[in-house]
Design brief:
The complex is a heterodimer of chains A (144) and B (214).
Chain A lengths: L1 H21 L2 E8 L9 E9 L5 E7 L3 E12 L2 E6 L5 E3 L4 E4 L4 E8 L8 E8 L3 E9 L3
Chain B lengths: L6 H4 L8 H24 L7 E2 L10 E4 L2 E4 L7 E7 L6 H15 L2 H5 L1 E7 L7 H11 L4 E3 L3 H10 L4 E7 L3 E7 L2 E4 L5 E5 L5 H12 L1
Helix pairs in contact in B: 3-7
Classes of the chains: A mainly beta (144), B alpha+beta (214).
Chain lengths: 144, 214
């Protein structure tokens, strides 16, 4: 009997630890715009919240929907738009704060799209964080 | 604890029935709405972008689409919207094209028919006429995508004050273009009328189109 209680307690503890671990980094509103096959690339956007008290970095992204996925940033200056890969440190997610990947700013560049992006489709995207490790999220294809 | 001598006056009066407040509030609200409506009507149209004052004839050009040559002068009588971009661009270009497509949706059918978007590639090496056609029609069936030789594109861009150059990308992307990301609007008479910066929403774009089509 005592053994069963011990096993139950261990299970509850593990579950609690699991939940807390999962909530360290929260990704919401992950989406991408529909685009035809003539568009080789697509941008993916999302909100990433860091619920821990130490800074973390999004350092890499991968998805079977993309030949290669990279972290990029669009920068508008005097009406001229340029876009370039972010540095090797990745995208900073401040302690207790969030990073927003959005239109005209930071985004995941999905290079060599493996399918037409059609409204209503979802794709799994795996995010690699410096401290939190990897996290797989669903990205929804929708208009804005 | 001492009682305040003002407590009597500060206490809310309970003698007035609530409907009496409505006698004051409703006419005030109506007067406010009427004033707001009249004020808005009296205001000149507020453009979302920069208005080009005076008559600035938009220089003509001829480039190639997948349905044959396209000249600006073919579309005299319509509102022509010029955008310089490239299909490799995943973020700002599709966002802008979607905003224009949404703006056209907002317009009534007659106005919508009189708007012609022409997407000029700044990446003629990778953007063929076929690729451009498929790309722009994804956003709106009426959109035209045009390309030409590097020299032709260069001279059209110069005529319209569009800056572009191939910037560094990554191994996977190859070069990435830097380019002026504004919408140039040419009125029915062929004059360059407005420059709309990136980030104006479809409602703002539609309001400007509607005004310029009058």
């Amino acid at each position: 009997m005592r053994r069963i209680w011990a096993a139950l307690a261990a299970a509850v503890l593990l579950a609690a630890a699991g939940c807390a671990g999962g909530a360290d980094i929260e990704v919401t509103d992950a989406w991408g715009r529909p685009s035809p096959s003539a568009a080789s690339n697509g941008a993916l956007y999302m909100m990433i919240a860091n619920n821990t008290d130490s800074v973390d970095h999004l350092v890499a992204v991968s998805s079977s929907a993309c030949g290669v996925a990279e972290l990029h940033e669009s920068i508008m200056s005097d009406g001229v738009m340029s876009m370039s890969p972010v540095g090797s440190a990745g995208i900073e997610i401040p302690a207790g704060g969030e990073a927003t990947l959005e239109v005209g700013g930071l985004h995941v560049m999905c290079i060599d799209k493996q399918a037409d992006f059609i409204a209503g489709d979802t794709y799994e995207v795996t995010l690699e964080f410096d401290k939190a490790g990897s996290l797989t999220v669903d990205v929804e294809i929708r208009e804005g | 604890m001492t009682e305040s001598p003002f407590s009597e006056e500060l206490a809310p009066s309970r003698s007035r029935p609530p409907w009496q407040y409505a006698l004051v509030a409703v006419p005030l609200l109506v007067a406010g709405l009427v004033f707001w409506w009249g004020y808005n009507r009296a205001q000149p149209h507020q453009f979302s972008g920069a208005v080009i004052q005076g008559l600035t004839a938009a220089p003509d050009f001829s480039l190639s689409s997948d349905s044959g040559p396209v000249s600006l002068s073919d579309h005299r009588g319509k509102l022509v919207v010029l955008y310089f971009g490239y299909t490799f661009c995943p973020d700002v270009c599709p966002t802008t094209l979607q905003d224009v497509a949404d703006a056209i949706e907002i317009l009534d059918d007659d106005d919508a028919k009189d708007v012609q978007l022409i997407f000029v590639t700044v990446d003629p090496v990778r953007d063929t006429a076929e690729r451009l056609g498929e790309y722009v029609r994804h956003f709106d069936e009426s959109f035209l995508g045009v390309t030409g030789t590097e020299e032709e594109i260069g001279s059209v861009a110069t005529l319209y004050g569009i800056y572009y150059r191939a910037g560094e990308g990554s191994e996977a992307t190859g070069y990435l273009m830097e380019h002026t990301a504004t919408l140039l609007v040419i009125d029915r008479e062929g004059n360059l009328k407005e420059v709309i910066p990136f980030g104006v929403d479809s409602e703002g774009i539609a309001a400007d189109f509607e005004y310029m089509l009058r």
